[in-house]
Amino acid sequence: MRTELKSIDWLKVFDQEPDVGLTVVGENGQIIHYNHAALRLFGVDDEDLLDKNLHDVFSEEYVRERMSWVQEVIDTNKPLRATHIYCGRMLVSSFYPHHDDDQHFAVILTRLDGVIPEGNIKETQSQFIDLGPLSVLSPRELEVLVLLGQGNSVPEVSRLLYRSPRTIERHKTEIGHKLGVSSISQLTRLVAQAGLRPEHLPLQRFDAVRKPHDCTPDLLPVNTEASSSTV
């Protein structure tokens, strides 16, 4: 690294970045540093993270998987990129190892836009899914939502699921009622925001945060859009 770059305080740089969540976690799960974007992305308050351990804030499943990634980057001294659906939105987190004397940390950069940066970094996917506002849907309704959101028509979904078109229409109506949406375009937007694909459906559902929290206030209800394709 060039000498003049070593003097840059990269934590301060990312503290000012509104669209990238920054979290620094120790190998024991201690939350050492975070920026405001991380608070917004994870839907938690400042007092929830300050001087806390991941175990104090997040569920056992979330912490166990998260810490396995932290430990891997510390042990291998190589970065890792993970995709995970959190509060009904697809997040991409990049884990980078950092060492300070005898202390070892993982610097975690999290993006909401779903864009996976290019680079020679090992990639993995969470085995859990936090649906957030979409958790009101039954497994079958979620399956119908994903297929409709990918552009399939009701007859096409009925063939894929071996159900009658009338049954799929009933599911579609119930989905619209539960989520407060009124058009196919809105369903498509929800699926795109969550990054949901059919291969995500078997993943174990869970709530990532221990206590009730402000989960993706910008996700639901969807803004009304002019569309002739109503749910």
Describe what this molecule looks like in 3D.
This protein has helices at 3-6, 10-15, 36-42, 46-49, 54-57, 60-76, 139-149, 154-161, 165-179, 184-194; strands at residues 20-26, 31-34, 80-86, 89-100, 103-111, 122-129, 204-205. The chain is α/β, with parallel strands linked by helices. It folds into two domains: 10-130, PAS domain (Beta-Lactamase, 2-Layer Sandwich); 133-205, Winged helix-like DNA-binding domain superfamily/Winged helix DNA-binding domain (Arc Repressor Mutant, subunit A, Orthogonal Bundle). Helix 7 packs across helix 9 (165-179) and helix 8 (154-161) packs across helix 9. The radius of gyration is 20 Å and the shape is elongated. The termini are far apart. Residues 1-5 and 219-230 have low confidence and may be disordered.
Through-space gap between termini: 55 Å
CATH topology of the largest domain: Beta-Lactamase
- Give the domain tally: 2
Number of helices: 10
What is the overall silhouette?
Answer: elongated
Task: Output the CATH homologous superfamily of the largest domain.
Answer: PAS domain
In total, how many beta strands?
A: 7
Instruction: Look at the helices and sheets and give the structural class.
Output: alpha/beta
Oligomer: single chain
Sequence of strands across the biggest β-sheet:
2-1-5-4-3-6-7
Mean pLDDT across all residues, rounded?
A: 84
What portion of residues belong to β-strands? 15-25%
CATH class of the largest domain: Alpha Beta
CATH architecture of the largest domain: 2-Layer Sandwich
